[in-house]
């Protein structure tokens, strides 16, 4: 089908003008050859941009206008497979915006906002295949939950910080805020899959929609956002979800006042280097636990709450993590494991794990 000719008259230059405006860039001077946009007063900028993507650059994934109108009333859900970094669509934000301190995870020091010396002109890593060998293990662990492509392609409309250096500072400040919002989306979407928490799914959906709305804010609004307050609100709901899930999954013999070893396993517990080989940690509360270099070979972690647990160099060989809650890919990437480690379905076996 041929595009509608009146709509076709929306000139590329005008679209670029809108994209620049959305990204808070100085507006390029209008060209005499640019026709007046026919929908200047009747369509919002976002719709014109989406029209551009749909008709002129369909490969960039625009949506039919009918869906866009729908979207303005009702935010779409988000599937969990979209909540992972897509470096192809990102302007190398984690390689620029974040600071590194020379350590076992990073071979060099780097200040926030300074591009890593290994970042290439096309925003790809020049040492991607040798990161661990060259001392950049931290880069193989990190996951932005999809915040990088959101900031690059939506918040800044596909205009990168090299093309538009005036946006660099705010883009790098917006990225860690967006990363926090996307991390919350990861936990909230997981919460909606947990049947024991069905009684509070309505509240979870409400906060999921609110978080999605926040991800669509413009850069200046994102910078003013009180992320800590929003996190606290989400966390309260995640805690309630966790209690419902663990209560249902807890083995009968442990449904009594905490004592001995059960008492020792608690939120934020220091288990650095602990020998937990074959431990029964079903439905345990390991929120924020320090499990660095712990021996968790063959441990049973089903229905355990693992949010924020530090698994750096922990050995998960043969461990059972199916049904554990709030585990992320970055936590797995930081740990050791093998082909026998059982994983939740939304996570993948890290490439560096032994067979
Ligand atoms: S080493 Fe590669 S992946 Fe790590 S920050 Fe530098 S460019 Fe990015």
Number of separate strands: 0
Shape: globular
Separation of the first and last Cα atoms: 52 Å
Residue stretches low in confidence (pLDDT < 50, at least 5 long) are: 1-11, 26-75
Which helices and strands occur, and which strands form pairs?
Layout: H1 5-8, H2 12-22, H3 45-56, H4 65-73, H5 137-141, H6 147-155, H7 168-191, H8 201-215, H9 219-224, H10 227-249, H11 260-264, H12 329-334
Bound molecules: iron/sulfur cluster (SF4).
Report what the structure shows.
By secondary structure, the protein is mainly α. It has three domains: 5-73, no CATH class; 82-247, no CATH class; 254-355, 3 Solenoid (Pectate Lyase C-like), CATH 2.160.20.80. The chain has twelve helices and no strands. α8 (201-215) runs antiparallel to α10. The protein is globular, with a radius of gyration of 23 Å. It starts with a helix and ends in a 21-residue tail after the last helix. Bound molecules: iron/sulfur cluster. The site of iron/sulfur cluster has 8 residues, from loops. This is Pentapeptide repeat-containing protein. Pfam families: Pentapeptide.
